[in-house]
Amino acid sequence: MGGPPTHVDDALGDASSILLLASSDSDFDDDACIDLLTAGDPAETNVISATVTDPPAERFALWQREVGEQLPARATIVDAGCGRQREVAVGDGVIEGGESVGLTVDMLPENAEPIDLGMTLARYLGAWESTPDSTMLCLHSLTALLEGFDRDVVISLVSALNDLCDTVGATAHHHMDPGAHDDETVATFRPLYDAVIEHVTGDGWTVTKAPADADRPTFRQSTAPPGGAAGTDPNRPETIPMPYSFDQTLDLISVPRRRTLLYHLKDRGSGTMSLEELVDAVVTRERSIPVRETPESSGAVRVSLVHSHLPKLADLGILDFDPEASTVQYHGNPALESFLRYVETLELG
Q: What pTM was estimated for this model as a whole?
């Protein structure tokens, strides 16, 4: 194959975020993508393929051409084609063959924006964090996103996803065609990643890693509010500013149980409640959501709330948690609740 260096793991080390720079109309781009997704045994790997450019069937066909019929332990293709004509729907013959052995397609709305893509990917990353298999994420491509959205919005998405992948132990690579951008744009994205793999005509592949002591910029202060503003839609209505960064909003909704907790707090409204009341409410909601696993027991839910989710929400100022009194005081927040209604609609309809 014409992908990056033969010993990918040796060259990249423990990099969790990789910028793949190669011409989008070359075989090098495709070959490198599959090499990165198959750095480990596919049978012990979860793969998330986010496509903005190609229809899902083309990404699946690429996998079959390079790997064969063996699919990862878990696999999903997130179709975020911004303005692309959707010629291949979920259930198309090629994709259906994948679904029969564990491949799913998650098609976002035609007017999907980076926040929609980010939230969808965060859901998969959070859901698969507890599996014994490693998770690999491919985003194809940044070039397509930059054609339709402001650069700062795309930077915010990249920063948030890279931070989240680092947190959950996933590895991501994002495609960019350097020939489609000026040098300043490419240089802006390079420091957002742990490593950059670049194909230079005549010279082959080079791998550049960030210095071990370098702090990767997060662009937290340039974060756009949820909903963003598409570069192609200057008349988009204003949204309520969020008090949290883009990184934090994705992290908030990345774990199913934390989403359930937040949905309940949103519906209940501000005020103080007992911990037991909250546990019962989360258990009831989880059991009523068909796509969720049934909670092991009320005790297990209580432990996860007390030791993980409630302290995290308290640190962000969303609520006050008193472990000794076993009480929770939720602070109503119109912007957060608007965001949660949007997420809940995406997840549950």
A: 0.69
